[in-house]
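ping. complex inputs:
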Amino acid sequence: MDKFTCLRAIAAPLPMNNIDTDMIIPQHHLTTIKRTGLGIHAFSSIRYHDDGTEREDFVLNKPACRSAEILITGANFGCGSSREHAPWALKDFGIKCIIAPSFADIFYGNCFKNAILPIILPQKTIDLLLDDADSGANAIITVDLEQQQITGPDGGVVSFEVDPYRRHCLLNGLDDIDLTLEKQDIIRDYEAARRLTQPWLFKD
Amino acid sequence: MRTTLYDKLWHSHIVEQQSDGTCLIYIDRHIIHEVTSPQAFEGLRLAGRALAHAGSMLAVPDHNVPTGADRATAVNAADSQLQLDTLAENCQAFGVDYIPMLDPRQGIVHIVGPEQGFTLPGMTIVCGDSHTSTHGAFGALAFGIGTSEVEHVMATRTLVLKRQKNMRIEVSGALGAGVTAKDIALAVIGKIGTAGGSGHVIEFTGSAVRALTMEGRMTLCNMSIEAGARSGLIAPDQVTFDYVMGRPQSPKGAAFEQAVAYWKTLISDEGAHYDKEIFLKAEDIIPQVTWGTSPEHVLPITGVVPAADGDARIARALDYIGLTPGTKLQDIAIDRVFIGSCTNGRIEDIRAAVAVVRGRKVNKNVVAWVVPGSGLVKLQAEEEGLDQILIRAGFDWREPGCSMCLAMNADKLEPGERCAATSNRNFEGRQGKGGRTHLMSPAMAAAAAITGHITDVREL
Ligand code: SF4
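pong. complex structure:
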């Protein structure tokens, strides 16, 4: 997996609450058997007109934000379907970090699996970051996972919390399947005990 | 210590606990479908990893399958067909139990699992689909996962998880006539919002919940995810055991007795601690209908479309849904009716619709569909003659699948079309680009089909 250590990038403001995964990647783009190539369809229902041309009013179409790698957005981001196509689409577009007051649980977990860092901050702090992102033509902010700090365009610093295990995996680009496979023995022991206490669960 | 049902399920599945509280959790059952599994199989192949335990898995295509009578020969979009073929090939290559599209047992994953006895109390159950919460109705810890986690379960039979918080929603009393589990689910979401259960597992308790059939309990747990909770739970009881008994994959004879003895211990202790508690009275709940583009945009049928009052999200919802504030919900005319989905595609739902439709005709301005949740639901309904009543009334009686719940296939609304739907999400574009969805119970959707507008089924 890709590492995430420190990111200095443009932050795009998308101040909407409850952005659902249908909005991040509409269902008619889910008929793929690959993880890549979805970036062009990210946010398609609000990013393009019906004829396929870009909507000027959508933030990621604005010249200043076209190469944004950070999204600053509203509460309950990623609610709805469990589709990992949502973080795949964002990643393929180039987004590496999402900052919001809250995330839907499944989406939040899916981000870490794709080297996207989701950061939860209080609404007040988000409002300040949104102001920064709105005002500066190129609101460059720095997200340092090592230090767990965000530095705004004016040098202001905000700290954030992140689960230590997930932080460790991101910083080192670790695939958690490999980590779990190192524990095969204890998984086997657990399963053997379970076969004795709840034999009806096992068909073979 | 007094523990909740969730705590018991969680603790009994811990393989290893790390010092920061993260746990390696054992997964008993894994259901897969065509949309969220191909990349996981591909991941296994690329990394040269084996499938840990094919015997704990069940595969069935549902999201993409055509639902017309000609499904065997219907030409699918090439990419949809590729997903269906890929599922079949992967299952064959890895030895996973696979129910093909033309098998009578085929249907929506969350309907097929319980029907087959694949879903049992006390288990952990996962699927790359957020409505896996449905299976919590059996007192199983069931939740949706992303494709990377699907791959993790395939490779290790475990997941790395953090414990969630406990939330209890008690619904006491008795539901009135014409009020159903769907109305409880929508009323709960109206009360706590779509993020209200975030970070929590919701246990539904109370006399109104106990009185629900397994079908109703599944409807309720199904929509926990719309309340922000990855899992819903209902403690198993005699209703559960009766449903499970005799299913193809459920334990038989002495094994069943042994299982039931264990399942009876799966209840929250008296006085167990919940981080959040919500209380509703069944008598206060009347039929519910959504007016906007989020399940929390919901009101009792007697309500009127609200004003935005400066709230940009509501203004946007009103604009998308094409309604004027102050409009009575009952005055909203509809074009389509969709009865089906993993929320309301079970036999009881079809019976409820038929009870309303019997002896009546679908309004001439409405195109109305019933899509059974599985082939077995369809067969059962046909045995009871329900299909004939629906067809005579003017309904289209279709083959099982997700169909117009998410419009991944040919089944979708046209832009601007308005639909009374028994599914679970009314997001923008969910049922087709520009389509407008009003969520409600099967009885309410059937009533709307008859009158051509949203209707209080209690008055029909
Ligand atoms: S019926 Fe709808 S909600 Fe249920 S699994 Fe299918 S698409 Fe998802």
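The radius of gyration of chain B is 21 Å.
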